[in-house]
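Example 4.3 (complexes with small molecules)
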Amino acid sequence: MKIGIIGTGYVGLPTGVGLAELGNTVVCVDKLKDKIDSLKHGKVTLYEEGLEELYQKNMAAGRLTFTTNMKKAISGADVVLIAVGTPPHPVTHEADLSFIYAAATELAEYLTDYTVVATKSTVPVGTGDNIEKIIRTKNPTARFDVISLPEFLREGFAVHDFFHPDRIVVGSNSKKATEVIKELYRPFQEKTTLLVVSRRSSETIKYASNAFLAMKIHYINEIANFCEKAGADVSEVAKGMGLDSRIGPKFLNAGVGFGGSCFPKDTMAMAFMGRMLGTPIELIETTIAGNKKRKKQMAERILDEVKEIPNAKIGVWGLAFKNGTDDCRQSPAMDIIGELLLHQANITAYDPKAMGTACQLLGDKIDYADDMYSAAKEADVLVILTEWPEFANADLDVLSQLMNHKIIIDFRNMLNKDKLTKRGFKYQSVGRV
Ligand code: NAD
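Answer. The structure with nicotinamide-adenine-dinucleotide bound is encoded below.
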């Protein structure tokens, strides 16, 4: 099949590479010229494990091309995937659909034969109806169907998740479009469920799923607070809970709160929709407020540790919103650092993948270290904010030599308390005494 993908970001690029690997001819279009120039010239613009290799392979095979020219991506395509951003509106926090509607308007005139226009972006209920109207108005003779095809990949595992989806949800009111999508995903038919539902149900499934996962994270963070007071260990509690198949072990790691480009905006968008429909979803409202408070509390814990140390130097390990990605959008690390900077904190940070993206957000407000030990050098306190596996294997004797005051705040529960206290460290983690 010929596939056109609009938007070459964290969703569009891995999806395009994955679909090319399945043998399709994929044309990715983005309006950012620099991004497309890099991709045209063999440079992957984001980090995802395994992406680079597949990208190079499919570029070389001629199945994967990049352009800023919408017509090249759309005309003759069997399926057009819309994968542009849906950021939160700065005032109302509802999903801002201006990129979606601009993409629909731009693609409409280039539709040639019958085309399935599938929305991969996370969009509020009813957006599919609006996309359909926009295309119909712009190009009354076009033969097309608009479906919802929500994306469930996890950043950091995008390539893995493309090839091993838990489920494929197709929100379609058209049998013809459904058959095209079934054909596209035929390689997965033995290993996953392809669920066909109405377009509105599909749009709701995506938000309801993300909001549920965000609530799960917030729940375990509340339980972590409880454990600290009750003398229990949240890691043990989470393990015991997760063994219950009705609960499951995932998203039960207590930490700094949820972040990233999806959960914060999607919970806000879902809450907004609930309010607009006259049915506020109070669990989600509480989760949003609680998550905001969590990050402030984490910053307060750090400030409390250094309040007696003049000009304390704070070493930070981890800037990305989670391990496996260079994405710092809505990273809890950014919020916590932002809070510390309000108190004139002196910060040196290191992240294995996200130094570039963090620097775009933080500029010269902090110092950047070349490796994890340099970030800890002469630090009065070392704070772990992202769960990169290499932090768990840190050489504690080296740290002990490097640090000024031996204080570690491990917000990802990665280090071993006994080993640290034996070496004279003051150590705190979350949800454990
Ligand atoms: P992104 O910001 O990384 O990428 C979006 C890209 O679209 C940008 O490169 C932008 O330049 C491009 N774009 C915008 N308007 C365009 C237009 N008219 N023509 C061509 N290109 C255009 O965004 P993302 O993280 O890939 O997210 C995309 C959507 O997928 C969002 O709705 C998001 O909620 C959803 N989603 C994201 C993830 C994730 O893990 N990032 C997971 C599931 C769903």
